[in-house]
Amino acid sequence: MAQALGRSSDYRVLRRLVARAPYTPAVGQDVKTGILLDTETTGLDHAKDEIIELGMVKFDYTADGRILGVRDVFSAFNEPTVPIHADITAITGITNEMVAGHRFDDAAVAAFVGDGLITIAHNSAFDRKFTERYWPVFEGMAWGCSATEIDWRKHGFAGAQLGYLLNGAGYFHHAHRAVDDCHALLEILDVTLPTTGAPALALLLETARKPTVRIWAEQSPFELKDTLKKRGYRWNDGSDGRPKSWFRDIDETAYDDEIAFLRAEIYMRDVEPSVQRLTAFNRFSSRI
Questions:
Q1: How far apart are CA 49 and CA 14, in angstroms?
Q2: For 186, left (φ over 0), alpha (ψ -120 to 50), or beta?
Q3: Is the pTM above the cut of 0.90?
């Protein structure tokens, strides 16, 4: 029945995602190893909220971004110091009973990611801040973000939400459980993009390797906030220790044009905005 529906242009068939079994790389095969990571937490504040579940999938890939297979899987619960709120349970399905008595094995986490060249999450701006607070090993790793470092709409998808992407790849899964989301992300990154003819992972790696520049439009006129928003600037409220200001991340090659825009359209004078250079090793980190 599924095959018959799949042959029709009037229907699309979604299949339940089945996690790949671990594989063994061929002797002498030149492979690179990456880590797919997802966390479930008690809230959104990386400075005070706690991780209640950590899921990771270690996978091998080639230099040109082709995924070869799953090397290993890590999944663990952690009992927080405060009870899990009902709203969090409704989202994740994780209850206080499920995490009772569980603690993360910090040495096991460090050992699992030790041979990884890059950690990829579907919202690295969230996950990196939490994991660096728990495990310093993540501070020295390169990171990529599959949600923001690929323009999914440009490549024919309905949006960047994990569920949309997985449906576009022909699957559905049990969302919002850490390791299940990692398995889902693996299949998404293995999809060949029709616009490039290469796996999505290849584009993500290419983007992650490029240095970017973060420009802070501090003390910009309030009445020009819509101009900044239209340009792609985002607001930071200062609660995280960074400037209370609009900011934008751009490619290094666009730096001169961006400074010219700020001088001509925002400040109406020569200015030297605060600038930070970001790479995969510090991008998305609370240290920035």
A1: 35
A2: alpha
A3: yes
Q: What is the pLDDT along the chain (288 residues), one digit of tens a residue?
A: 999 998 998 998 999 999 999 999 888 889 999 999 999 999 999 999 999 999 999 999 999 999 999 999 999 999 999 999 999 999 899 999 999 999 999 999 999 999 999 999 999 999 999 999 999 999 999 999 999 999 999 999 989 999 999 999 999 997 668 999 999 999 999 999 999 999 999 999 999 999 999 999 999 999 999 999 999 999 999 988 889 999 999 999 999 999 999 999 999 999 999 999 999 999 999 988
CA 2 to each of CA 6, 18, 47, 223: distance values in angstroms, whole numbers, following the listed order:
6, 16, 47, 56
Let me know the angle formed at the C-alpha of 129 by 126 and 135, rounded to the nearest 5 degrees. Answer: 130
What is the rounded distance in angstroms from the CA atom of residue 133 to the CA atom of residue 146?
A: 21
Q: Are 151 and 45 in contact (CB under 8 A)?
A: no
